[in-house]
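INFO  loader      accepted 1 record
INFO  loader      residues=632
INFO  predictor   begin
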Amino acid sequence: MDVRHGSDGEPLRALGNIDAVTSQTQLPSKHSAHRRNPALDGLRGLAVLAVIAYHLWPAQLPGGFLGVDLFFVLSGYLITSGLLRNHGRAALRSMGGFWVRRVRRLVPAMLLMLLGATALALAAAPNLPANLRAQWVGALSYTSNWMQIANGNSYFSAAQPPYFQHLWSLAVEEQFYVLWPLLLIGITLLVGTGRRLIGGILVLGFASSATMAALYDPLQDTSALYFGTWTHGFGLFFGSAAAAYAAYRGGGTVRWGRSRGTRQLIPLLLIGCMIAGFFLLPDTSAAAYRGGMALFAAAGALLILALQAPGSAVYRLLSIDYLRWVGHRSYGLYLWHWPLLVLCKLVFPATAPSAAVLCAIPLAFLAAAASWYFVEEPILSHGFRATLRSWGAGALQVVRSLFFGTQRRYSAAVGMSLTMMVPVGIAMVLANSPMQSQLEAQLVQAQQVLDQQQTSAPEVAPEPVAEEKHHTRSKGFSGKDVTALGDSVMLASSPQLLKQLPGVYIDAHVGAQVWDAAPKLRAMKRAGTLRKVVVMGLGTNGDFQNGTLVEIRRAIGPDRELLLITAYAPRTWVDSVNDKYHAAAQQQKHTHIIDWAEQAGSVEDLASDRIHPGPQGAAEYGALVRRAVKNL
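INFO  predictor   done
INFO  writer      dumping tokens
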């Protein structure tokens, strides 16, 4: 029986979720200790592997982000299971110990990651990750999610995502840990225990998911809903409701169905639906926000209850040693995989994305294994004081070997030198981390150029195009004939577009969407400022409905030339966007393709996000548009 103890000898209870802790269930005897549930360890491993695969290959596993929701469910279940073992005044007295155990479990590994990943960022110099000082504040205060909302960071279409963006989920959980014990006591005092308690927690879960669904707007970035503590808290509540149900059943094994076949079928159906969600539920789809994530979390809560009964095929599958090994280290894997992936993308050229991935994967597993072996497991087993004493004794031994030992002096010197270099590297990185990344600075500068162009040289309205007559001009268009609408890719290329097509009117913004185009084009046409050729470089930030391009054609009229620039980005929707562009070019007159997607793959100076071109790529983008305009 594997029971982990703190320094005071008290069993560590309900240490769960993304932090890869020991998952526990109660044995039927009320006097028994708490034992590990190997299937929950495996379930945690499955969740973290889905998240990592989503970040590495978003097009292949578009719903892998749901692994975070599974972490939330596990967290709510395991934390609430521990809290419900105490009642009344005992619950109030146990709050201090509960929060101490949370700090002991979460903080050391996160601090190790913050220190280590920041020091390693030196490898990306001079292109250091941006705004690290503010990210440190968000990490240490567990407010990363709200800071990212306040800064307008997009989880799904950011030009260059923050180095520690993934800590938003830890912030949500820590806020839950602070508030939930007190809220749970209040709900218990208000409605009592048993079925009423289960119902009360479920009401919170349904209200959270309903808020996300009600506030979802397909025309707006959904990151605020995704990062929000309340709007994304339903998984925590559903997991807590499952814990309340298990407690209502007496804390013993929860068995569903009388027949053995039913007990085999239910967990199989649940995990099958969840795995299908990983492959079929894209991160920005309306279905995800209007109940998809909530249904996934509810299935996860039901699966946890089903896994309390050993013997099913799913239980045995999730209990295999390799998956449990990953589950034990899932906290470290989650902490380390994202900054290492961002760092590898900064170090390796954009034309070698596979090299960045192949480097990030083993580094993440090595870092997670080291975090578990040297930090997490010792503190869980022995507590802070004993672990710190052990570290101090080890450091003292290294010093003795360096100055007085006759053996291993060289290795001790190397180890001490590296240790002393870490704080120096951290200080250098934090001191020199720019407020904006190079890409962000490039986009801001380009936007200023466009704003200056539009204010200092107001556009002269061209002669209206006669709608009843077909335009017979076949070539010879210049920049003065072109209105260009685009997103951040066109914005990054706008200086070169202005050089390649003098006089072109460019309206490009970060986060612009295809559905923004039709209203803007109609307004230009009414004002008499819409030119004879419309170039549209949109689609990087999201897909659009099938009728959108027809609406755009109606907005500009049947005789204007429409040039659609295909999108190039490692995003799940890009293929759909480009397919619609090609279909429109085949079906609509005066509609043409500019195939940036075909050319961008060979551009050598794409940014680390493999989307935005640098100066050389921008020149190729501008030349591509210029040739297409001249050849009309």
